[in-house]
Structure formats: C-alpha cells, structure tokens
Design a protein that fits this description.
The structure is a single chain. The protein has about 140 residues and is an alpha+beta fold. About 30% of the residues lie in helices and about 30% in strands. It has 3 helices and 8 strands, in the order αββββαββββα. The strands form 2 sheets. Strands 3-4-8-7-6-5 form a 6-stranded antiparallel β-sheet, with no helix packed on it. A two-stranded antiparallel ribbon has the order 1-2. It comes from Fontibacillus phaseoli.
Length: about 140
C-alpha cells in the first residue's frame, strides 16, 4: 500500500513538472517588450532585456556592432511598436530619410545608431565618425 502512495506522488510530481515546463516554454516564446537595458555598443540605446547577445565586434575602425537573438521578431514586421516607443522615450529620433528596408537609422545628439531587424534577431550598429574632417580643419592656415 505504501509503495502505491509513493508511486502516485512521483507520478503527480512528474505531471506538475511537465506542466511547468510547458508553461515556461510557451511564455518564453514571445518577448514582453516591458524592460530595456543599454546596448553593448551604445549604452544610451535601448535593447530588450530578454535579448541574448550572440556576436559583438568592437574596436573596428569603421563601426562597432552587436547582434542579439530574440525569438518572436520578424524581419517582415520591422521594429515592433513597443520597441519603437522605448527608443523614442530614451531620446532617440528616427532619421526616416536615411532608413531603408529593415534597417532604421536613429540619432541622439551627435550619435548615430543603425538598427536592423532579422527573423528572431536584430543588430545594433554604431558607425565611427570620420576623423579626417577634424584633422583637415587643423591643417588649414
């Protein structure tokens, strides 16, 4: 009799763990779009806290970028409305005349960030400003 009780308890715990696994799996499939943190390449540019950094290129002579994975993004849908709102709230303005396709261009003060949406991922790219203009200005008589 006692063994049957233990068997039922183990079966019940197994069912509970399976249900938790299913609930957690379903909940994690879509981003919540409620919490944002600064990007790895530009701390003043928001990225969803749920995004996972998969690739980073820093100290490149022409640009710095970071690639994030985030399930639920669709290249065909572009920037989700909640993410666009967060970007604006963090003080960034879209330069619509420079944006094209799935790449959006944002600026804040003298900073420029390119945001490209992919299926289940996105890239934040920060181009380096040309230093030639400053050097040429110093060389003038």
């Amino acid at each position: 009799m006692r063994q049957r009780g233990i068997g039922h308890s183990l079966c019940f715990m197994g069912v509970v763990f399976m249900m938790l696994f299913i609930i957690v799996g379903c909940a994690a499939s879509e981003p919540s779009w409620t919490t944002f943190v600064g990007s790895a390449v530009e701390k003043s540019f928001p990225v969803p806290k749920e995004a996972k950094r998969t690739e980073t290129a820093m100290n490149n002579s022409k640009m710095d970028y970071v690639h994030y994975s985030l399930s639920g993004l669709r290249e065909s849908d572009s920037v989700p409305e909640a993410y666009q709102k967060a970007i604006t709230e963090w003080g960034w303005t879209e330069k619509k005349e420079e944006s094209a396709g799935t790449t959006r261009v944002f600026n804040k003060d003298k900073l420029v960030v390119l945001l490209t949406i992919h299926d289940n991922a996105f890239t934040v790219l920060v181009p380096k400003m040309e230093e030639k203009a400053v050097i040429q200005g110093l060389e003038s008589p």
